[in-house]
Amino acid sequence: MKLIDTHNHLYLEEFDPQQDELVEIAKESGIEKIFLPNVDLTTVERLHTLCDKYPDFAYPMMGLHPTSVEKDYIKILGEIETFLNKHSYYAIGEIGLDLYWDKTFLKEQIEAFEEQLKWSIAYDLPVVIHNREAFSYTLESIYKTGANKLRGIFHSFTGTQNELAEIEKLPNFKIGINGVITFKNSRLSETLSQTKLDKIVLETDAPYLAPVPYRGKRNEPHYICKTAEKVAETFSVSLEEVVQITRNNALQVFQSANKLI
After folding, report:
1. Angle of CA points 186, 192, 194, to nearest 5°
2. Distance from C-alpha of 104 to C-alpha of 148, rounded to nearest angstrom
3. How sure is the predictor about 57, in pLDDT bands with cuts at 50, 70 and 90?
4. For the chain, what is the radius of gyration of the CA atoms?
5. Phi and psi at residue 223, in whole multiples of 5°?
6. Four-residue CA torsion sign, 162, 229, 10, 119
7. pLDDT, tens digit, for every residue of 127-171?
8. How many whole angstroms separate alpha carbon 9 and alpha carbon 178?
């Protein structure tokens, strides 16, 4: 298998000191590539360290996570953008809007999100979007910035059929599916049956959202196989077909960045 994990935080301290071991387990389990989104200024060094160590396996993104956006976001964004001119990245991410935890900085989140969407266009990179209880705002910002100029992934999609239909109207976006699809009370499988497999990429969001039977534990890269199996069941196709199609979908998103293919 040649699985691609399009969203993984293996560089975080939750994995210390097992990163090397988990990389080897991931490779042995059939994972070909993992893409790692940044969080904020505190995670940049750890992100670079891991990706520099495994340049043909771990691929970095750069951005400011919405839950890290506060009053000083303009200064922080300025510092984040300097890295785009000094290193190679495969996407602008993880960026977006999150109103689940706190709505205090909604205005700042929207402004930071739209600024980073503009980076995507300026640097010709895909975006990886975090959207939690903010879909209408997220969509509004995408159309405001330029829906036809943007491409990327709606990370950790758990939305409704109506939200899925809105994403399908965007010409260059995929949806990231992770362990949530395996949860007992999740209706995600039912929702996904309304779309096509060529709209989907696989992800773990490790160390978060571990699939059944690991739910509640630290998510690890090789657990992506459980998500792939559930997607295969959802579409009534073989696991091999899911791996091949979602791999091609992921490369379609990331291929123009630094000639990945």
Report:
1. 130
2. 31
3. very high
4. 17
5. -70, -10
6. negative
7. 999 999 999 999 999 999 999 999 999 999 999 999 999 999 998
8. 13
Q: DSSP label at 206? A: B
How far is the C-alpha of 117 from the C-alpha of 250, rounded, in Å?
19
Q: CA 161 to CA 41: how far, in whole Å?
A: 35
Structural contact between residues 178 and 7, judged by C-beta atoms closer than 8 angstroms? yes
- Tabulate helix, strand, coil % of the chain (nearest 5): 45, 15, 40
> Residue 148 has which token pair?
């036809």
| Cα–Cα dist 10/25, whole Å | 13
Q: Which two tokens stand for residue 81?
A: 């953008």
Tokens of 133: 């209880």
Return the bridge partners of 59, or none. 35
> What phi and psi values does residue 30 have, to the nearest 5 degrees?
105, 10
For the chain, where are the alpha helices, taking DSSP H only?
19-28, 44-53, 73-84, 106-123, 135-145, 161-168, 188-192, 224-235, 239-254
Which of 127, 164, 166 is CA-nearest to residue 145?
127
Separation between Cα atoms, residue 221 and residue 31, nearest integer Å:
8
Averaged pLDDT for residues 161-186: 97
How many helices (DSSP H) and strands (DSSP E) are in the chain? 9, 8
Confidence (pTM): 0.96
Residue 126, preceding bond cis, omega within 30 degrees?
no
Please say whether the beta carbons of 231 and 242 come within 8 A. yes
Q: DSSP for 59-76, please give it.
A: EE-B---GGG--TTHHHH
